[in-house]
Structures are given as structure tokens and as C-alpha cells.
Amino acid sequence: MSTLLCATIAIIICRVESLPSPPPWSSLTRMPPSSISISSWSRISAGGMSRDRRRRRGGALFVVGRPLARWTVGSRPLSSSSLEGDGSTYGDELDVDGAISSWSRLVSSMPGCRGRWGGVAPATDGLDRRIMSVAVPSMLNLMVVPLVNAVDTLYVGRLADPLALAAQSAANQCFFSIYFLAAFLPTITAPLVAKAIGKRDWNEARDRVCEGLFLSNVIGGVFTLLLVGFPRAVLSLVLPPEAASGVMTHAVPYLRWRALGMVPALFASTGFAAYRGLLNTVTPLKVSLTTNLLNLALDPLFIFGMGGWSGGGGVASSFLSSGLGPSGAAAATSFAELASALIYLRLLVRRKLIQWSRLLRPPSLKSLLPLIQGGLAMLLRQLTLNVAFVSAARRSQALDPSGVSAAAYGITMQIYSLGVVCHLAIQGTAAALVPSARAAGGDTAAREVADRIFVWGTYLGLLLACVQWFALPAITPLFTPLPEVRNAIRGPAAISSFIHLVNGLVFAGEGTMLGLGSFRDLALITSLGVAVMVSCLASPLGNNLNGVMLSLAAFNLVQGLAVTLHHVRISPLRRRGFFKQRNNVA
Prior knowledge:
Elements: H1 2-17, H2 25-29, H3 51-73, E1 78-85, E2 88-95, H4 102-108, H5 120-157, H6 162-182, H7 184-198, H8 202-229, H9 231-235, H10 244-259, H11 262-277, H12 282-304, H13 314-322, H14 327-350, H15 356-359, H16 365-398, H17 404-479, H18 483-516, H19 519-538, H20 545-569
Antiparallel strand pairs: 1-2
Helix pairs in contact: 1-5, 1-12, 5-12, 5-17, 6-8, 6-10, 6-16, 6-17, 7-8, 7-11, 7-16, 7-17, 8-10, 8-11, 10-14, 11-14, 12-13, 12-14, 16-17, 16-19, 17-18, 18-20, 19-20
Signal peptide: 1-18
Membrane topology: Multi-pass membrane protein
Subcellular location: Membrane
């Protein structure tokens, strides 16, 4: 199944590479005034309709949406105006400052629902192609990793031991909680590289990549020593004392093997971020596909061993004969991450984006300032996220001593993560395209890109919710043969399907804020969502697995509402419309 999946992705790579190149930003932003498209609720219908029909269809949505928008942001006086263009008159309601409502602007950016006004249609089609050319390869790239992780879980599940599944879930939660404390470096590197490339400043782009790799090496090395030297202390954050006895036996060696991939994983993430800043997501997809195929090949060997293999005795003979058990999945993943890091280093050297001499030389404080400014806010954000998800994992581990609830939670999150990586691709696309468009075409270009990505994110969330809901009966039995675990998965997995509905807004908004450098605001929004989630977990809602997932849903709902409100009313792109009212507009 995994080989077939990877072959399918390889075919899609060829399709993506054959897509026509999208037009440059200049063609999207430097349009004559007569070709400017007006954003309004009443122009929500498709282009080519008669003016009256457009108004009738758009009016229904306007009646519903307008009171909701006013309730959210407060009512403001409006003035009625009309605009002349291409022999027709178009009426609209404007704010008194002459700017169309930003809520209207956001809705009107829906692909395929924009009126054709002058030369706008070719430009917007080009924008959709540009977004897809970055998002689709990035989505496939990110999807490979959880697919392989799902195969890891599938192999561990075949051991028919719920404690092994619970140990894998706990160890992975601990690893990623520590990993993401350093992963803010790749997160910040992508928009900084994109901004430098947008200005055609290759020296600055090289500086940002080298600084990110140096810090990844230092911070990742410290975290590796922590996880290898003190695994029980780290695991105690997730495993409560009453549930730790049997699970800890499997979790300690698993976490130690997984920790060996910390620095390579950070190197690979920084390399991926650098290529994303270059708006090249096809090359990282090829790297990910290659290294994860290696992971898939090593999984059964490291977990189960070679069975009848006979050697000269010793540790190597014992390992190859019987395998490492659940820890073998971690060892295979770390080995694949090392291969990925080496490939990225070679590629970055060929692109002249790194210099070997600079990887071991500490950068100056002045050059580190952009990373430090954004890094502190992102570190705070990641700390609050860790509090939330470690609390959820700990709650699931404490629900029953048999490990069934913990195993069900781990499998549910594995299924849920398959959709999350698609949203992460939208986040990464926004983080790369928004600063690139802003550097090349100003706020107008960045605003249109952000609006469109919000809408594509919403479409994606709806699609993922439906796909996961209908696929659950087929994919759940693949992860475990234990009937009690299968039964425990049903409710939480169904709830996680509906979380994707709001994730479209969450990740599009987060990516836009990353691209704009609004790290502090993003950290504050995340803190608000985490406070809601932890409060739910501490209430009676957290006494069962369904309640744990509902707490996660509350977190995402708060995040989605907050980032959308930030985009249309607070962010640097908040101007309500694409133009100001002219003196001759009646």
C-alpha cells in the first residue's frame, strides 16, 4: 500500500512539474485603474452573468453576511456610490472613508466567483496558478511524512500490544514537543528568505540560511543530549505515575532512538524552508519521497528483524535477527532524517545558499537580530502549544491503565495529522507568497494573495472533513487488530474530522501572519486558544477521550475566529478595499 502511494505521488510530481509557469507579480499588480475589480457582497456570483442576475444572487448572501459582519466588527455609516467602467455602471455601498468593507473583499476573492471587469480575469487566474504551484508540491511533500508515520504506527500495531502503541504515542509527543521548541528557526527562515529573494538580494538569503543552520546545530545538539540522557524525566511530563509502569519500558528506548534524528530533522526542515522561500517546492518533494521510501524499507527490518538470519553472534547478530521492537520504528525514522539532511546540505551548496565555513562560525548579533526578534515570539507560541498538547496526551494516558485510551488517542492523532499536513502546506504557501508579493508589488499584491489563500484554505478544510469522515470505517482497522482499541477510536476520530472545517482559516491566517512578521500577535492568539483548550481539559469535559478531542476543537475554533478577524481588521493588510473613493464618484 505504501509503495503504491509513493508511486502515485511520483506521478503527481511529473504533473506538477508540467504546469505552466505563472505570470510574475508585476503582471498581477500593475494594472491600469480601469481594470480594477470591485470587491463586494453583491459581486459574489460568477462572471459573465447579467448585472441584474448578479445582484439578485449576490443579494441573498449579502442579506445573511452583512448583519453577521456588523455584529462582529460593529456598524459603520455607509454611503451609496456608483462606478463607471467599460460602458456599464456598477453600484456599491462604500464606507464613509471610501473603502469597500474588508469582509466583502475577503468573500469576493473566491476563485471562480469574481466578475470579469476589464483585464482582471487573466491576472486572477495567474494568481491561482501561482498559489497552486507552491501549495500542491508542498502539500504532497508534507503528506509523505505522516503517511510514513502512519505506516510506523501500523507496524507497531501489528505487535498486538496496546502498551507499545501507548509508548509510541507518548514518546512521539515528547520528541515533537522538544523539537518544535527549535523548529521556530525553519518557520522564520522561509519568509525571511522569500523577502530577500523578492528584493533580489542573494547575499541576505545566504546569510539567513547559514544562520538558521548554525542555530539548528547548536539548539538541536542540546535537545538531543537532553532526550538521550534523561528520557524518563522528559516522558514523565506525558506519562502520569499510575500509567507509567508498563508504557515506560517501551517508551524510553523509543525516545532515545528518536532523539538521534533531532539535528538532522532541523537541518532538513531548514533546507525545506530555504527552498520554500525560493518558491520551489518540487525539489523538497523529491527529497522527501526518496528518504521516506528509505524509511519504509527499514521499518520492518528494524522492528521485526530478519527472522531466520544467522550471523557470527554479538549485538549486531541479535539486532538483525530479532529487531528492536517498537523502537525500530524510531531508529528507521532517524536514519532517514540523516539521509534527508545530507541531501539538503548538498543541494544548498550547489545553489550557493550556504558556505561550509559559516556553518561552524557563530554569526554576529546584528545579523541574528531578525531571527531573534521573531524567534522569541515564536518560541513563546510553541511553549504554549506544548502545554496544550502535552496536557491532552497526559490526560489520554491517565484515562485507563490498560493503555487502550492512550492507544486510541495516538491513532486518532495519526489519522488527523494526515489532514493537518495539507493545511500546513497552505500555511507555508502563505508564509512564502505573502512577503514575496509584498516585496515585489506592495500591500495591494500581498492583500490579494492573502485573501485568495484564505478562501483556498476554507475549500481544503471542507474537502478534508468529508474525506476523513467517509474514510474512517476503512482506515481505522488498518492501525490495530485489537477490537477494544478500534471501538475507542470511533468517536474521537469522527470529532477530529470536523475540526478540519475551521483548520482552513486557522492555517491560512497563521501563514499570512508569519509572512507579515506578525509574530507577537500570532503568539497572543495562540495563547488565547491554548487557555481555552486547557480550561476544557481541566473541566469534566476532559474525563473521556471524546472530551479531549472536543477541547482540541475549541482551541481551533478560537484560533480560526481570531486569525480571520486579525486579517481583516488588524493586520498590515487591513485596508478595507483595493482603492479609495474618487472625487467624481457620486
